[in-house]
């Protein structure tokens, strides 16, 4: 038997049909495609961080329960004392942990779409059916459709990214609350963009026993460290803890995050700067003829380019040295949309120049 027959026999059909997550080559380009913080660290902070790293013992396994790090996260994020914390190797891993624990035959995962793709990808990888409920045309939650889908399907968990990726808006509190009250399953509110909005759903997690909140440090400036955290009632986290792989947070990440949280002032300044840049970029984009920028409570802006093909716009920008994300393939309603991460002032100006020459 040849290798392809063996693969056909042994690999699940849904995995064979899917393709791996593609990350485009960004060498030499202004990188505005992945919601990263564009700023570096001040020299004195970097020097102090390198001192800390010298003492990390890489021959030892990481601390399996980094309590000091959790305490710092609690302080920094004002996490209510009645909520517990579970750390993940990025919030992607937490989504996977939750779905591994909840997967039983016939249970389904639900999310409004378009949204963050990993909910569907991870569900598929675990053999769980994903139900996507289309957002309204203004990208608000279609609450009646979500409630109908919750009634129709046996939904184990509903993911709500708020603010949402890739649309950039946040959903009305009352709409999320209606969904929470309507489901007999869990609701995970994904606050990956918490630093770029004034909304906050932690109070839902204290008020409703079926709500958990996920956050990540990726979008505020630590994407390379991979640290996400899940917050919610101890009883739920006690179950998810059993699924978490031991030592999932490596020693360099633990030491680095603890260090950065102690020196977080510079990161907070960078985030404040990005919020200002976002508003400036949004106005400038909307002034371009043939471009419509949607309001954003994140560190990216979704733009519609109705008269031109979004793939062609993204490709033309790439040729001009700027990498953005075309959303053409992501969903039929985003056929003519691109997603632009907010960069530094100079990067945003370069993007605007390149876009002016394109659309
Ligand atoms: C980027 C993003 C994540 C992934 O974050 P990591 O912690 O880097 O894995 C999760 N959810 C949403 C909505 C995102 O946009």
Descriptive report:
The protein contains 15 helices and 13 strands. It has 359 residues and is an alpha/beta fold. The strands form three sheets. It has a seven-stranded mixed sheet with strand order 2-8-7-6-5-3-4, sandwiched between helices. A four-stranded antiparallel sheet has the order 9-10-13-12. The longest helix is centred in the last third of the chain and has 23 residues, at 265-287. The radius of gyration is 21 Å and the shape is globular. The N and C termini lie far apart (53 Å). The mean pLDDT is 95. The structure holds pyridoxal-5'-phosphate. Pyridoxal-5'-phosphate binds next to α5.
List the helices and strands and how they pair.
Blueprint: H1 3-10, H2 13-17, E1 30-31, H3 43-54, H4 67-77, E2 84-88, H5 91-102, E3 108-113, H6 118-125, E4 129-134, H7 143-152, E5 155-161, H8 173-182, E6 186-190, H9 202-207, E7 211-216, H10 218-222, E8 228-232, H11 234-241, H12 251-262, H13 265-287, E9 292-293, E10 300-304, H14 310-319, E11 322-323, E12 325-326, E13 337-341, H15 345-356
Parallel strand pairs: 1-11, 3-4, 3-5, 5-6, 6-7
Antiparallel strand pairs: 2-8, 7-8, 9-10, 10-13, 12-13
Helix pairs in contact: 4-12, 5-6, 7-8, 13-15
Bound molecules: pyridoxal-5'-phosphate.
């Amino acid at each position: 038997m040849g290798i392809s027959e063996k693969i056909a026999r042994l690999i699940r059909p849904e995995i064979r049909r899917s393709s791996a997550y593609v990350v485009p080559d960004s060498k030499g380009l202004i990188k505005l495609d992945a919601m990263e913080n564009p700023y570096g660290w001040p020299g004195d902070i970097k020097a102090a961080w390198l001192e800390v790293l010298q003492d990390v013992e890489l021959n030892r396994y990481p601390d399996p329960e980094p309590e000091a790090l959790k305490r710092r996260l609690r302080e920094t994020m004002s996490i209510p004392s009645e909520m517990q914390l579970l750390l993940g190797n990025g919030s992607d891993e937490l989504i996977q942990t939750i779905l591994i624990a909840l997967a039983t035959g016939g249970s389904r995962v639900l999310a409004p779409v378009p949204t963050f793709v990993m909910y569907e990808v991870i569900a598929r990888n675990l053999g769980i059916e994903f139900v996507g409920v289309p957002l309204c045309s203004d990208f608000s939650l279609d609450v009646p459709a979500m409630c109908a889908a919750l009634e129709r399907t046996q939904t184990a968990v509903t993911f709500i990214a708020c603010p949402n990726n890739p649309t950039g808006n946040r959903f009305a509190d009352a709409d999320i609350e209606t969904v929470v009250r309507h489901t007999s399953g869990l609701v995970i509110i994904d606050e990956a963009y918490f630093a770029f909005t004034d909304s906050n759903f932690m109070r839902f997690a204290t008020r409703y026993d079926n709500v958990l909140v996920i956050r990540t440090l990726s979008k505020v400036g630590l994407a390379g460290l991979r640290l996400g955290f899940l917050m919610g009632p101890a009883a739920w986290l006690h179950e998810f803890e059993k699924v978490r792989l031991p030592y999932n947070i490596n020693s360099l990440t633990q030491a680095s995050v603890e260090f950065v949280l102690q020196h977080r002032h510079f990161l907070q300044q960078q985030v404040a700067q990005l919020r200002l840049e976002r508003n400036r970029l949004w106005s400038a984009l909307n002034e371009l003829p043939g471009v419509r920028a949607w309001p954003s409570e994140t560190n990216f802006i979704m733009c519609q380019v109705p008269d031109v093909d979004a793939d062609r716009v993204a490709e033309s920008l790439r040729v001009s040295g700027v990498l953005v994300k075309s959303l053409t393939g992501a969903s039929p309603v985003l056929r003519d949309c691109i997603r632009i991460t907010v960069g530094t002032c100079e990067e945003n100006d370069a993007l605007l120049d390149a876009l002016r020459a394109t659309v």
